[in-house]
Design goal:
- The protein is mainly α.
- It is built from 14 helices and three strands.
- It has helices at 4-21, 25-30, 36-50, 57-61, 65-77, 82-101, 133-146, 148-160, 164-168, 201-214, 236-249, 257-270, 275-282, 287-301; strands spanning 175-178, 181-186, 195-198.
């Protein structure tokens, strides 16, 4: 005889099974994430793990901790970066945790006690490309020779240390005065909703010139020039390509959009900004993330390599 509580649980499980059986399992899971970048990354990770995107409940139930451990081992053997492996594991663990919460599986095969330990991501030792002040100026000069849009956008990325997803989502309405200052609202960003950063007045003036030149009064601030999507919002991928192509044209190393974020943080520190000021401006959750810029600079500026002198150095 079923008790009322047992009947409620049974009914809940049946409803859960019916709810997700009629939907695409991965897409239904990804609805819980508000950031498009997270959805894209986790979707790619889950498809890579299962081998296809049309995942059924039966497919999910066949997965064991042994399956996941073998997958991790394959990633390590193929030379995947530690950060990539840890993100893949997070996607898999979260997916099965979601199914467990829906009561359509009993246990999570990706539980921390069941799968192999992955290498930690040592942000302190991570190497990233940073432009010097003169290189950043050369990048801006080259951008201005191509279009006012590219110049204004790269200038904003450097001074506001923005992620490319944040740049892509910028609307005219997001830039507004606050007292004596100008700010950029960031309604959808990695650290959570309703954030903002200060925009220097000269950057605002350049953006205003961009808006006037292209007749932009509202909506997306950065728009496409392509024939396929004229006037449409620039995508994060397009922004990456614009930065990369501008750097190549400027004779600089091939860089991505995130290099401008690294550069802005580093230049601020070198000019005297405190670690706390940079952490707040960059919206880093952990101070350790901000410290990576200091560690790399100090490690290279005053290295033991500079103290090693040999008698015949430079003779060959």
């Amino acid at each position: 005889m079923l008790l009322k509580s047992d009947l409620q649980i049974s009914t809940h499980s049946a409803v859960s099974r019916g709810l997700i059986a009629s939907e695409h399992l991965i897409d239904t899971y990804l609805l819980k994430f508000d950031r498009s970048a997270t959805r894209r990354a986790y979707r790619s990770d889950l498809i890579a793990f299962f081998g296809h995107e049309d995942i059924s409940l039966d497919d999910a139930r066949e997965i064991t901790f042994v399956t996941i451990n073998k997958h991790i081992a394959q990633l390590e053997a193929s030379g995947s970066k530690a950060a990539t492996i840890r993100r893949r594991v997070a996607a898999i663990r979260g997916f099965f945790s979601w199914l467990q919460a829906l009561e359509v599986i009993d246990t999570n095969p990706a539980h921390r006690q069941l799968i192999r330990t992955t290498k930690a991501v040592r942000t302190k030792d991570r190497v990233f490309i940073v432009l010097t002040s003169s290189q950043a100026t050369q990048l801006l000069t080259t951008a201005s020779e191509v279009s006012l849009r590219n110049h204004a956008m790269i200038l904003a990325m450097l001074h506001c240390v923005l992620r490319r997803s944040e740049v892509a989502s910028m609307d005219v309405e997001h830039i507004r005065p606050l007292g004596d200052f100008w700010i950029l609202d960031l309604p959808y960003t990695k650290g959570g909703a309703d954030q903002y950063v200060k925009i220097p007045e000269h950057v605002v003036a350049t953006i205003e010139a961009h808006k006037e030149h292209y007749g932009i009064a509202s909506g997306p601030l950065w728009r496409s020039f392509s024939r396929r999507n004229p006037g449409g919002r620039l995508t994060p991928t397009s922004i990456y390509r614009i930065v990369r192509d501008t750097a190549v044209a400027a004779g600089l190393p091939e860089i991505g959009a995130h290099t401008l974020r690294h550069t802005g943080c580093t230049l601020a520190i070198e000019a005297g900004a405190s670690i706390q000021q940079v952490q707040l401006h960059a919206r880093h959750k952990q101070i350790e993330t901000t410290m990576t810029y200091v560690h790399q600079r100090d490690r290279l500026r005053d290295s033991a390599a500079d103290y090693i002198n040999l008698e015949n150095d430079g003779d060959q």
